[in-house]
Amino acid sequence: MSKNLLNKVWDLHTVDQLSTGQDQLFIGLHLIHEVTSPQAFQMLEERGLQVLYPERTLATVDHIVPTADQSRPFDDPLAEEMMRALEENTRKHGITFYHLGTEHQGIVHIVGPELGATQPGMTIACGDSHTSTHGAFGSIAFGIGTSQIRDVLATQCMAVTRPKVRRVQVDGPLGPGVYAKDIILRIIADLGVKGGIGYAYEFGGSTIDALSMEGRMTICNMSIEGGARVGYVNPDATTYDYIRGREYAPKDAAFDRAVEYWRSIASASDAEYDDRYDLDATTLEPMVTWGINPGQAIGVSQTMPRLDSLPDSLRGVAKSAYEHMGFAEAAPIEGTPIDVAFIGSCTNARLSDLREAARVVVGRSVASGVRAFVVPGSKQVARQAEAEGLPQVFERAGFQWRGAGCSMCLAMNPDKLNGREICASSSNRNFIGRQGSPTGRTLLMSPAMVAAAALNGRVTDVRSITPASAA
Amino acid sequence: MVKQGEEVRVVSGTAVVVRGNEIDTDRIIPARYLKVVTFDGLGEFAFRDVRFAQDGSELDHPFNRPEHQGASVLIVNKNFGCGSSREHAPQALLRWGIHAIVGESFAEIFAGNCNALGVPAVRVSESDVERLMSIVESDPSMTVAVDVERREVRAGDLRVSASIADEIRESLVTGVWDSTAALLANRERIAETASNLPYMSGFCA
User: How high does pLDDT run on average in chain A?
Assistant: First the structure.
């Protein structure tokens, strides 16, 4: 038996054991954004500390940026103040900042990989729970709070306990209309929203091997929704090909040496794990959430659970979910009317997501009364989509095409649900109030499924929509 | 608020019960209150959308009840603090007055954030949580003691055992829960570790 990736990378990055017994772990890449960093910089100032490795931190803006009109100053004075704080802090500490108006602004978890800054065998931290996304490259990536951002800025390290590792083995080909999003929603539904506490999830198997980097990112992104702070995929040729030629990628001979290192940290076939879970991907269908956490998900052809069929530990939250959603036990999810369709977020706003959604909407129209919009995950994604004519496909169908940002995933910018609106959303959380209205309702699904829901004004099995001939 | 370097051995005071599993950090503090550059003043936004209706009128929530004003111990159920990594959540609770949390289980990032603030988040069994909740709900004036050092929670005659990871307990009772100084003390070893990582030199070495 040999060491798995997590343990290899962990050992290489362990600086020391602290008096508490926690490990002092070196962080190879630190990503920051406007919402969770200002207080950390303030704490540094109060303590007279500097940023130890400013070249290992990259900044961008995503959470609060408006996606309709991005001109400054923002209408929202609080958002404007946060922008100014990040401008000032990055300038003062010599941190590279991919600001609005630059070619690499966007959602931090889309920008890092796109720049080639996210690499295998690295430790990565960011003040955002979806930092697990970067694990798709075979890095160990943690979402952290602001006090830990302070630690990373001041010391390039964090105090942390090594997690156990669960191998999540997914095998078999995916059926048509079934995507990475459906895999991870199934895993969370099976293992539970707290099943991953104390674990890192290593995703592998023939299904994962066959996924693009974008699909792998979708899966690792939502590890945290299953309670696993860290999720990763072993690096392989798909990973190396993705990184090659990007801005921060090693070049020429250095790239070959990098691949050697990247290979060396991957789990071997005899690697040891603390636990294992198997999923047969051929059984999957498009998934939709019906409740108030991402584990409350079913296949589109299924009916919502009866309360009396659920174990005690799930019944209380399911009851709250029915109260909030206004759905009936045992009702089908398919056909549920929607008011808003949102394609975006660090989970599903990459080029392949937009392409798949565009394939569904091309030559068709958004149902009347449905507010539909596409928020590309980054400026680069927007540029690539434009080169392929995707904005026109969406706009002709009645979608709004917006600027890059987090947008209605968490509604810190002007994009929000109103009242009890129901949103078909390609994002990651269906928590009560998540999309900006305390009474708003969220149905999580893949971008293609959101597109199908937008066209019909109700939850629709995307497999029932015959692709129109390309426009 | 606990001060940097302060030893956290026992937190005691009156308690407040918030029932329910999977109470996420969006529920603890909705995202619209994250538009701040300081954590000061977040206390009033703790549980905002379940404490107040959209028209501003007060709803029935334990944090609004007069008998729980001044409470310093929060008692919860499973997977408390799941979701977003926002430290604003424990900051809002702390600034409302919560200095210790007792629950069946906690989401990992939330628990780490609590620890970084010197707020113990200790786990007790489902049946013990229920006992503690019932005691506090029937007698809100009851003092609840969260004893980190002895790994127990006491309320009147009741004494239940509590779990807390060894490292976290150690960091609290020795006052090094704020880890910056300890991490920085290893400066030379940080540089040594960094120099051994091939990517730090761009794979040029």
Answer: 97
